[in-house]
Amino acid sequence: MTSDNFTLLDGLLVIISVIVAAIMLRPAVRDAAFWRATVTPLASIIGSGFLVVAPMLSSIAGTWSVVCILGIVLLSFWIGDALRFNIHHDGQRQSGKVRNTEQLLEHFSDMALALAYVISVTFYVRLMSGFVLDGLDAYTSFNADVLATAVLLFIGGYGWRRGLIGLERLEEFSVTIKLSVIVSLLLGLIYFDIRNGYDLTDFPPIQTDLWEGARKLAGMLLIVQGFETSKYLGSTYAPELRSRSMMLAQILAGAIYMAFVALALPLMAVFTEQVPSETAIIGLSGQITVILPIMLILAATMSQFSAAIADIIGSGGVVENVGKRRIKVRTCYPVIALLAIALMWSSHIFEIVAFASRAFAFYYFLQTLLAASLAYKVAHGRRRWRLIGSYSCLSALLLWVVIFAIPVEG
Questions:
Q1: How far is Cα 267 from Cα 44, in angstroms, rounded to an integer?
Q2: 325 close to 316: Cβ distance less than 8 angstroms
Q3: Residue 15 CB burial class (10 angstroms; 0-12, 13-18, ≥19)
Q4: Cα Rg of the chain, angstroms
């Protein structure tokens, strides 16, 4: 690749990102209720691990990574169907037309979600710290833990003293920057694959046995987590809007994940013989163009920070709701931050992914049980038994994830 071509590609990718961002920040787009309702789940799904998914999958499945991400995405759509069913029947609970069974399932699933959010906050901030330090050429695991600790203490302290409402405003801008960079990254990968040929011959035969590989894939459920946030936007958006926006967020995120894994695969052979790091994609993107690593560091930093803010707020809100508002939400923030710090110093980042996957799987497990119970109550005829069968099978699969999921390094 010549210097002129390299510079031209850099310039084109920056211009494309700016155009995409400008379109998304237009008032007609930014202020549309449907898009606002889509942004929250979309930010959470993509923020959960877009930049680590390809190296992690390659270390497990090699050239079968595209099939694996398709399976993970389809599983997330199946779970999303159960949550959308629950969203449409929220009125059953609000009007008191439910049995104690549904109330208990909702209560315990809320508690499971609060725990899952604590774990995901740990992952987001630790991943963000790794990207920042890698960009400064100062990355070590210890340095990343120290920086993540400082960030978590800041978030917890700021939330306790002043609240996090102002920080929430960063979410839409961070999503815009992240999506505009992703568009440039995908275009850069297309250019790289066309220029160099889609060569997968460097991949050795898969060494992981089927059982271990399935357990590691189960430990990656966190990657597509985040769509459940639509369920908790009821104070602002109607059930139909939340359901449709959740579906759109899942479609966009699923398409992005599958395109990224497929396009990045020729660069991933190295991870079949070594452990993937959380910052690996930054170095690999430097093989495409000089500007992409810089753009990815910016996108990753804003994305993970805003995702952490959102999940701390969400966790505090869930705890407040479970405690029937006897617990002040502001007092939850420093506690959540301290729990995240303790988890981070006692675990590796990919272990955190598996922990969070199990925690979210348990939440989804309870939600699918709730969906099956509601289906028995509100559906009729063949549809009733089809829904009960679908959600019951999904519950069994998620219970398997809770029990058997392991980290990529496990």
A1: 26
A2: no
A3: exposed
A4: 21
Distance CA 260, CA 166 (A): 32
**Spatial distance between the Cα atoms of 238 and 244, rounded to a whole number of angstroms:** 10
- CA–CA gap between residue 349 and residue 124 (Å, rounded): 10
- Identify residue 102 by its one-letter amino acid code: E
User: What are 293-321's pLDDT values in tens digits?
Assistant: 888 777 777 777 777 776 776 676 677 66
**Token pair for 46:** 């993509």
Burial of 141 (C-beta count, 10 Å sphere; 0-12/13-18/19+): middle
Helices (DSSP H) in 265-348: which residue ranges?
Answer: 280-285, 291-322, 329-346
Interhelix angle 141-161/291-322, nearest 10 degrees? 50
The SS3 of residue 87 is: helix
Inform me whether the pLDDT recorded for 2 exceeds 50. Answer: no
pLDDT in tens, 234-275: 767 888 999 999 999 999 999 999 999 999 898 888 777 766
- From CA 315, how far away is CA 306, in angstroms rounded? 14
259-295 b/e (C-beta count within 10 Å ≥ 16 → b): bbbbbbbbbbbebbeeebbbbbbbebbeebbebbbbb
| Residue 26: partners with Cβ closer than 8 Å, 6 or more residues away | none
Measured in Å, how far apart are the chain's first and last C-alpha atoms? 39
CA distance 322 to 4: 60
From CA 318, how far away is CA 329, in angstroms rounded? Answer: 9
Q: From CA 276, how far away is CA 52, in angstroms rounded?
A: 8
pLDDT digits (tens, 9 = 90+) for 182-226: 898 899 899 989 988 888 888 888 777 889 889 888 888 878 888
User: Would you say 197 and 21 are in contact if contact means Cβ atoms under 8 Å apart?
Assistant: no
Question: What distance in Å separates the CA atoms of residue 77 and residue 71, rounded to the nearest whole number?
Answer: 10
Predicted structure pTM score: 0.83
| Residues 6 or more apart in contact with residue 323 via CB below 8 angstroms | none
| CA 187 – CA 204 distance, rounded (Å) | 27
Contact between residue 165 and residue 2 where contact means Cβ atoms under 8 Å apart: no
- How many angstroms separate the Cα of 197 from the Cα of each of 81, 97, 201, 339, 348? 38, 60, 11, 47, 35
Q: What are phi and psi of 324, to 5 degrees?
A: 55, 40
Contact 184, 14 (CB under 8 A): yes
CB 193 within 8 A of CB 263: yes
Q: Is residue 52 a contact partner of residue 124, using CB atoms and an 8 Å limit?
A: no
